[in-house]
Amino acid sequence: MMSDRVAGASTVLPVVILISGRGSNMRAIAERAATGSLPVNIRAVICDKADAEGLAVAKSLGLQTRVICARDHANRGAYDLALANLVASFDPALVVLAGFMRILTANFVDRFAGRILNIHPSLLPKYRGLHTHRRVLEAKECEHGVSVHFVTLELDGGPVIIQSCIRVKPDDTEASLSARVQRQEHSIYSQAIDWFARGRLTLLNGQPCLDGEPMSSPLFIDARGD
Ligand code: GAR
Q1: 197 closest CA partner among 10, 8, 65
Q2: Per the domain annotation, does 156 fall within a domain?
Q3: Residues classed as catalytic
Q4: How far apart are CA 98 and CA 12, in angstroms?
Q5: How far is CA 212 from the centre of its chain?
Q6: If you measure from the C-alpha of residue 8 to the centroid of ligand 1, how many angstroms do you get, rounded to a whole number?
Q7: Is residue 147 within 8 Å of residue 163, measured between CB atoms?
């Protein structure tokens, strides 16, 4: 697997980030990478929407961007194959899904098996899929949170690496919950990527391993005081 060197720094891991929207997770990762505190080199930010806010953010950070739209492809399989080819052209050691809102098929997932991370705004396995903040409020949950997991073919079902839990307050709205969850996202995603980049985190026989030991459960961060 290839590694990069950045301006006199030590070896860093080449990554490609996939986004669909605002790109705040991508920005958090890029800012840490720029300071050298996260040992990754973002070779490209790829987006499935030409007008996504995150694309402008990526460009303003000096990152290389590409757009690949579903409507230009005959079906999901064809799209995922083209997306996989585009990602592979940057030869990443890790693919980071940061708010990439498409369900990926085997054409993509098998190609980068064990090298795709995703962040999902819920305490998985609870609330897979969309509108997690709304569903948490409707269910009158006391706790909510965010999970980082390896991507498998099962939607939001891959093995979880790290989670952060926040308290749901009585006056919370979708917007207020989302803002607090995102604060946690920006820190735990970098943590998982850092472990992977330093070779501390791997997926072995379907199980996340940290420092060579199978993780019996995800690392759990209690941010209920946040
Ligand atoms: C984040 O909240 C992320 O957890 C969510 O999309 C948002 C992207 O925000 N991802 C999913 O729902 C994936 N199932 P961002 O564009 O500001 O990083």
Answers
A1: 10
A2: yes
A3: 120
A4: 19
A5: 22
A6: 33
A7: yes
